[in-house]
Write a structure and sequence with these properties.
Elements lengths: L1 E5 L4 H12 L3 E6 L7 H10 L5 E3 L5 H10 L4 E4 L6 H6 L1 H22 L3 E7 L22 H19 L4 E7 L1 E3 L18 H9 L6 E4 L11 E2 L1 E3 H17 L4 E6 L5 E2 H12 L5 E4 L8 E2 L4 H7 L7 H20 L1
Parallel strand pairs: 1-2, 1-4, 2-3, 4-5, 5-6, 6-11, 7-10, 8-13, 9-14
Antiparallel strand pairs: 9-12
This protein binds nicotinamide-adenine-dinucleotide (NAD) and uridine-5'-diphosphate-4-deoxy-4-fluoro-alpha-D-galactose.
Length: about 350
């Protein structure tokens, strides 16, 4: 298929681009580069042996979207483009509603205008709010505790309405748990601007000496070692889940499908530190700090529906996640030194 990846130059989009190419799809990336840079396309070319077109544009620009959908005869869209920092969304909610909600609405209008009705959307486990039971299955009630989460919920609701109104749409909502790790090549991975909010990139930068120590946010949760438990999923497994979901919605007669993409396995912050140190032979100085506002004790998926309906299951373990993160970080340091 010919597939448009909004936000295709970003962390998850670039890994999905590589996975789609190796499954024989043709792709075009559309990104405003607000949280990525165009050099990722050269590295994707090195991985896939193919030059992937990048159109620089904003999803709030309907004309630019219509042009790319028509010019490349796009048949399906995978929609990653969005802002994703929870704290920033609390401080700047208008920016988040504008970028994420208005951006998605503009994308849906452009798709409708161009007759493209197959869409995979990047949602998040954040839509489950405070877990009422674990593991979280897709029927768990949804709620949001911050503007970022509310944008994901609003978009999910928009997609449900669109799919209900026109049964020709084929929409997949993918609720990611905690994507970590990097491509085996070490050429693409997660490289956030500024000080990372998320655990794994923070750990990598402490290991690299770019940050002094990790603050472990809370050690008094009701978890085996008192630190927060999450469902970390290797980004390459996550990428394969997109290929499986796209394939499934092109064969189903259901207009809307929702799948968790997680492993079903929870690891604590200290489990992550221990594994990173063990497999990479590095030091991660850390100290226990107060809890971070808005964090829950534990969050992990039931991946059963995706296994059953997509025939997809995450296969890469925690060691592989830690090894690939560190490999990416080291190669990044070497590239930056050049
Ligand atoms: P990312 O920031 O690396 O990638 C997002 C890409 O979208 C970036 O390249 C950015 O430049 C682009 N973008 C942002 N706004 C845009 C706009 N208005 N027009 C065009 N391009 C725009 O983030 P990621 O981690 O790859 O996340 C991808 C998606 O997955 C996001 O929607 C995010 O909310 C969702 N998600 C991520 C995680 C995670 O932990 N990484 C978890 C759950 C859900
Ligand atoms: N943590 C630390 N120190 C840090 C960073 C994180 O101890 O410097 C802890 C957190 O308290 C939490 C765990 O590490 O217990 C994971 O935190 P992350 O920030 O990496 O991930 P979250 O689970 O908080 O959130 C992530 C994304 C959200 C998304 C959610 C579910 O950031 O956007 O996963 O998909 F909604």
């Amino acid at each position: 298929m010919k597939i448009l990846l909004t936000g295709g130059a970003g962390y998850i989009g670039s890994h999905v681009a590589a996975a789609l190419m190796s499954s024989g799809h043709e792709i075009v990336c559309f990104d405003n580069l607000s949280n990525s840079d165009a050099t990722v396309m050269d590295r994707l070319e090195a991985i896939t042996d193919t030059a992937i077109p990048l159109v620089k544009g904003d999803i709030r620009d309907g004309d630019a979207l219509r042009q790319v959908l028509n010019e490349y005869a796009v048949e399906a869209v995978i929609h990653f483009a969005g802002l994703k920092a929870v704290g920033e969304s609390v401080a700047e909610p208008i920016k988040y509603y504008d970028n994420n909600v208005r951006g998605t609405l503009t994308l849906l209008e452009a798709m409708r205008d161009c007759g493209v009705k197959t869409l995979v959307f990047s949602s998040s486990a954040t839509v489950y709010g405070e877990p009422q039971y674990l593991p979280l299955d897709e029927n768990h009630p949804t709620s949001a505790t911050n503007p970022y989460g509310r944008t994901k919920l609003m978009i999910e609701q928009m997609l449900a309405d669109v799919a209900a109104a026109d049964p020709e749409w084929r929409v997949a909502i993918l609720r990611y748990f905690n994507p970590v790790g990097a491509h085996d090549s070490g050429l693409i991975g997660e490289n956030p601007n500024g000080i990372p909010n998320n655990l794994m990139p923070f750990i990598s930068r402490v290991a690299a000496g770019r940050l002094d120590e990790l603050s472990v946010f809370g050690s008094d949760y009701d978890t085996p070692d008192g630190t927060g438990v999450r469902d970390y999923i290797h980004v390459v497994d996550l990428a394969d889940g997109h290929v499986a979901a796209l394939d499934a919605i092109t064969r189903t007669d259901q207009a809307l499908s929702t799948w968790n993409l997680g492993t079903g396995q929870g690891y604590s912050v200290l489990d992550m530190v221990e594994a990173f140190v063990r497999v990479n032979g590095v030091r991660i100085p850390y100290r226990i700090a107060p809890r971070r506002d808005g964090d829950v004790a534990s969050c992990f998926a039931s991946p059963e529906r995706a296994e059953r309906e997509l025939g997809w299951k995450a296969s890469r373990d925690l060691d592989a996640m830690c090894l690939s993160s560190w490999n990416f970080e080291r190669l990044l340091a070497m590239r930056n030194a050049d």
